[in-house]
Amino acid sequence: MNAELAMASLEFMPNKGAKIISKVIASAVSNGGFEPQEVVVASCRVDAGPVLKRFLPRARGSASGIRKPTSHVFVEVAKAAKKED
Q1: What does the pLDDT profile of the chain (85 residues) look like in tens digits?
Q2: Is CATH 3.30.70.260 what the domain over 3-79 is classified as, yes or no?
Q3: Which of 27, 29, 36, 76 is the most interior residue, by most CB within 10 Å?
Q4: Strands 63-79 and 39-57, how do they pair?
């Protein structure tokens, strides 16, 4: 999908992660030194990252564990192939 179209469609989705992925695509485009119109999103994936382990105090001096997972977002952009008519 064209990067400009992908960012525009993700910007108006109601999902929480859509805006985050839109920002990551914009960052990948600018880091590559491209314009959004001339690149396509080659691949996009979200992998598990490290987990922060915390404790929550409970009754009678005990504690229960809290896991705060993080994630890695990978976006790969590539030059769009020119269509020859």
Answers
A1: 899 999 999 999 999 999 999 999 999 999 999 999 999 999 999 999 999 999 999 999 999 999 999 999 999 999 988 766 5
A2: no
A3: 29
A4: antiparallel
